[in-house]
Prior knowledge:
By secondary structure, the chain is an alpha/beta fold. It contains four helices and seven strands; from the N terminus they run βαβαββαβββα.
Amino acid sequence: xxxxxxxxxxxxxxxxxxxxxxxxxxxxxxxxxxxxxxxxxxxxxxxxxxxxxxxxxxxxxxxxxxxxxxxxxxxxxxxxxxxxxxxxxxxxxxxxxxxxxxxxxxxxxxxxxxxxxxxxxxxxxxxxxxxxxxxxxxxxxxxxxxxxxxxxxxxxxxxx
Length: 160
Ligand SMILES: Nc1ncnc2c1ncn2[C@@H]1O[C@H](COP(=O)(O)OP(=O)(O)OP(=O)(O)O)[C@@H](O)[C@H]1O
Ligand SMILES: [Mg+2]
């Protein structure tokens, strides 16, 4: 079953990320996909803030992975420019996911076979004006509980 919420400003998307951060634990993987410029990086910025990351978070497009120290390390991937799944070995993709941080992967739907079985899927579509439509789904037991709790927290925050 798919479910989701909408945001109506970049600030609301950052807020949604902050709410997600509270629910994430080391080893969790969140795959972000959808439209170009939909707000994936803004969501990651909110998660970073929620995890206590002090440094600025920008798009890691040119280096594919940036690790930000926080209460839990944040692994911020952006696979947009990646052409072949084999290149994931160059950034130790699988090992990094398992190294005890929280991983957020922009364009995470690009190489679905490389993702762990249990991950949160977030698809963001551009709506009218500043509206962004989020679809959220867990693909396993752990991620489904994260997804459900996040949707609940967003709802309580007035994001629906
Ligand atoms: N509701 C919203 N949520 C997030 N961003 C919004 C929203 N409304 C407008 N924006 C604008 O949309 C853009 C989103 O940029 P952002 O870099 O977060 O997207 P992205 O999905 O990471 O892009 P890319 O596909 O290039 O990685 C920003 O310019 C932001 O100000
Ligand atoms: Mg981005």
